[in-house]
Specification:
By secondary structure, the chain is mainly α. It has one domain (25-115, 124-177): Cobalamin adenosyltransferase-like (Hypothetical Protein Ta1238, Chain: A). It contains five helices and two strands, in the order ββααααα. It has helices at residues 30-49, 54-74, 97-111, 127-152, 157-177; strands at 16-18, 24-26. Strands 1-2 form a two-stranded antiparallel ribbon. The longest helix has 26 residues, at 127-152.
Length: 192
C-alpha cells in the first residue's frame, strides 16, 4: 500500500529523481522521459473520462490504473531486487500479457460494430472522440519514448506491447464513440 504523508521531499531539487531501487536519475534521463510521457498520457485519459459514457469511463479508468502499473514497471530497472527478468513479484510490479489481452479483447468488441475505413480519419468528430484521439497521440509519443529507452537499457517487452496496443484501442474507441461517423481525410482537398 502506498502512503504519502509529505508531498515535497526536496530530494529532486538537484535535478534528479529516485527510482524504486533507490538509484537516482537525471530528470531528463531517457527513463524519466518515458515515465513522464506515461504520466501525461494518464492525465489526458483523465480528461477523456469526463466526456465519455459511464461504461467507457470504466474502461478508461481501468487503463489509467494499468498506466500506474506501467509507471511502476518503468521506475524499477531490470535487476532491481535481484530480479533477473521482467517477471512480477511481491516487490516488483510489471505489466503482464493479461493486460495486453484485455486491450485486444476490448478492441475487437468495439471494432465489431464499426464500418470498414474508406480513408484516414481526422481526429475529432465529437468532443469525447477528440479527447480520446489526443490521448492516442500522446500514447504514440510515450511509445516512442519507451522505444528510445529500450535502445539504451532493457525494457519489459510487455510494456512496449501494451503501449502499442493501447494506441490501437484508443483509435478504435474514438471511432466507436463517433459511431463510425468519423470525419475523413480528403487528400488535397484545400489545394488551389
Amino acid at each position: 500500500m502506498v502512503k504519502l504523508n509529505k508531498i515535497y521531499t526536496r530530494t529532486g531539487d538537484d535535478g534528479t529523481t529516485g527510482l524504486v531501487d533507490g538509484s537516482r536519475r537525471a530528470k531528463y534521463d531517457t527513463r524519466m522521459v518515458a515515465i513522464g510521457e506515461v504520466d501525461e498520457l494518464n492525465s489526458a485519459l483523465g480528461l477523456a473520462v469526463l466526456a465519455v459514457k459511464a461504461d467507457i469511463a470504466g474502461e478508461l479508468e481501468r487503463i489509467q490504473n494499468d498506466l500506474f502499473d506501467l509507471g511502476a514497471d518503468l521506475a524499477t530497472p531490470l535487476g532491481a531486487f535481484d530480479t533477473p527478468d521482467f517477471a512480477p513479484s511481491d516487490m516488483v510490479l510489471r505489466i503482464v500479457p493479461g493486460q495486453v489481452d484485455w486491450l485486444e479483447s476490448a478492441i475487437d468488441r468495439h471494432n465489431a460494430a464499426l464500418p470498414p475505413l474508406r480513408s484516414f480519419i481526422l481526429p475529432g468528430g465529437s468532443e469525447p472522440a477528440a479527447r480520446v484521439h489526443l490521448a492516442r497521440a500522446i500514447t504514440r509519443r510515450a511509445e516512442r519514448a519507451l522505444a528510445a529507452l529500450a535502445v539504451a537499457e532493457p525494457v519489459n517487452p510487455a510494456a512496449l506491447t501494451y503501449l502499442n496496443r493501447l494506441s490501437d484501442y484508443l483509435f478504435v474507441l474514438a471511432r466507436a464513440i463517433n459511431a463510425g461517423a468519423d470525419p475523413l481525410w480528403v487528400p488535397g482537398a484545400s489545394r488551389a
